[in-house]
Design goal:
Elements lengths: L1 H24 L6 H35 L4 H36 L4 H28 L1
């Protein structure tokens, strides 16, 4: 059952990509055919993924009940601290970097000052990595 759902979802993904490429090559850029095609694929894809989740969750709960170690939550915490810190850092670097590029294009003497702000935004990711190293060290 699970394999059928996953293979069907993969088929819908490839159908969506190939249909989008086909319609874009035919020149339907501003037409509603692409929108209808994507809506049809999403109405097929989302229930399939929900079905896969409903099939997978009971197995995961059963595996969690039989587990004797809770170190999995520590690994999950380390992964989340690094991942979310890097996500926040990426958003900050994107915003600060574009503003810094605009400031440097106005006045070239601003380059040193703007690099400091970009570096501060990147520091968020380093803090998340330090926290995850501390979590992994405690396991």
């Amino acid at each position: 059952m699970l394999n059928f759902i996953l293979y069907s979802a993969i088929f819908v993904i490839f159908l969506t990509i190939s249909g989008g490429v086909y319609y874009l090559k035919k020149g339907y850029e501003h037409n509603s055919k692409i929108r209808r095609f994507l809506q049809l694929n999403l109405t097929m894809f989302i229930p399939m993924m929900l079905g896969a989740i409903l099939v997978i969750i009971p197995d995961m709960v059963h595996a969690a009940e039989t587990a004797t170690s809770s170190s999995g939550l520590g690994y999950m915490g380390a992964a989340l601290s690094t991942g979310l810190a890097c996500l926040g850092s990426g958003v900050a670097v994107g915003n600060v970097g574009s503003a810094a590029l605009g400031a440097v294009s106005e006045d070239e003497k601003m380059l040193g000052k703007t690099l400091i702000y970009v570096g501060l935004a990147e520091g968020i990711a380093i803090y998340g990595l330090v926290i995850s190293i501390m979590i992994l060290g405690a396991l």
